[in-house]
Amino acid sequence: MSGLTPETPSTLLSVRGGLIVSCQAYPGEPMRNAETMTQIAESAVLGGAVGIRAQGLGDIALIHERVALPQIGLWKDGHDDVFITPTYEHALAVVRAGAEIVAIDGTRRARPDGLSLAETVRRLHKETGALVMADVGSFDDGLAAEDAGADCVGTTLSGYTGERPKTDGPDLELLAALAGRLAAPVIAEGRIRTPAQAHDCLTAGAFAVVVGTAITHPQSITRCFADAVADARAGTAPTRT
Question: What is the CATH number of the domain that holds 183?
């Protein structure tokens, strides 16, 4: 397991080896409502989650008020390459809404406000004291994010930046490489669809595991079952397992 040092912040220690549940809905979906997302977060707590990841200021604020677990907050904004908490001002708003950890784009791509990743992290540490999770897409991103001062690194963007292929499940190769190299905790996130895959992430060295769609996105879960039923009607093998 990566990232365990005497300097590891207590907030991160509290999620070590556990499941963080990402409670998000996309714009236009029936569940795109702060109250609904908070109820899902509360349900995740009952199921054994050790942390919550949430998107949007309203969701973050209400979850912070009602859920007594560390929260990784982010603000998706825009349609350009860098859209996960793309600027310092976005990150500052996320912290003020109540997130103990702010997730930001941790790639080496140019940020919309012109600040470097290191400048963004340094300002957040100095002005808020919040922890920073760098969502990265490659091994080199992870190295740069740690050098920039990120408190933890997530594999969230693997397969989405053009540097690595989009694996069918979690990118265990990247996860293991980062966990074996970085001193910062490496958090597995992205395409973790089954309990077995979550297990594999911890075995590969993840400090903690984030699961979202497979737990909290009914449209995707329903589609998996609907596809399996359709395969059965057609007399074919399941297209997804």
Answer: 3.20.20.70
